[in-house]
Design brief:
The complex is a heterodimer. Chain A is mainly beta. Chain A has no helices and eleven strands. In chain A, strands 2, 4, 5, 6, 9, 10 and 11 form a seven-stranded mixed sheet that branches. A four-stranded antiparallel sheet of chain A has the order 1-3-8-7, with no helix packed on it. By secondary structure, chain B is mainly beta. Chain B has no helices and eleven strands. Chain B has strands spanning 4-6, 11-14, 19-25, 30-38, 45-51, 54-58, 61-66, 71-76, 85-93, 101-102, 106-111. The chains are: A mainly beta, B mainly beta. Chains A and B meet through strand 5 and strand 10 of A and strand 4, strand 5, strand 9 and strand 10 of B.
């Protein structure tokens, strides 16, 4: 395994479902991030974890709940989502002191 | 006013052309300037980054930062069909973890 791995790659869920996105990084980094990418819009930072501690919550609705059990794993728990939450969700990791962020392939989420 | 402005394109060029991609920004506190390449259905891939002003070259790619004008550029020489992708500029502040602010991306098509 190399780099940043996200599962699943695609997810279709109803508005009443609960699902989780998983991210794992094999780069030895100590910071992990969730970004949202919607069509024709810039990537939006959602959450930042630094040494497993959440250091940023960019006014994200509570129906998105992150979890970082260790420096290598990051989850995004989803519940009662809305159709407008359909997007590509990207996980990234970096060294705390460096500017370079490395991204996973993303999870394409569709809420029906 | 958006913090980072980027022309979405699409930009279509013939193989072998020199491509110029640009972003403008409003926050003079940005210190790190990144360019990412994103192929369809993939996560962003870091191409190169520059700290503060100046130029940086890596193979066929050259990044330029003009902080006085709040303007950054990415030049691609001898463009290839494999360069066809969306190019994202991103910026962050000096120090600390990597809170990236992205442009919306420019879609580039290089035709044989």
């Amino acid at each position: 395994e190399t780099g940043v791995t996200q599962t699943p790659r695609h997810l279709v869920m109803g508005m009443t479902n609960k699902k989780s996105l998983k991210c794992e990084q094999h780069l030895g980094h100590n910071a992990m991030y969730w970004y949202k990418q919607s069509a024709k819009k810039p990537l939006e930072l959602m959450f930042v974890y630094n040494f497993k501690e959440q250091t940023e919550n960019n006014s994200v609705p509570s129906r998105f709940s992150p979890e970082c059990p260790n420096s290598s794993h990051l989850f995004l728990h989803l519940h009662t989502l809305q159709p407008e939450d359909s997007a590509l969700y990207l996980c990234a990791s970096s060294q705390e002191t460096g500017p370079e962020a490395f991204f996973g392939q993303g999870t394409r989420l569709t809420v029906v | 006013q958006k913090e980072v402005e980027q022309d979405p394109g699409p930009l279509s060029v013939p193989e072998g052309a020199i491509v110029s991609l640009n972003c403008t920004y409003s926050n003079s506190a940005f210190q790190y300037f990144m360019w990412y390449r994103q192929y369809s259905r993939k996560g962003p891939e870091l191409l190169m980054y520059t700290y503060s002003s100046g130029n940086k070259e890596d193979g066929r790619f050259t990044a330029q930062v003009d902080k006085s004008s709040k303007y950054i550029s990415l030049f691609i020489r001898d463009s290839q069909p494999s360069d066809s992708a969306t190019y994202l500029c991103a910026m962050s502040f000096s120090g600390g973890y990597n809170k990236l602010i992205f442009g919306a991306g420019t879609r580039l098509a290089v035709h044989p």
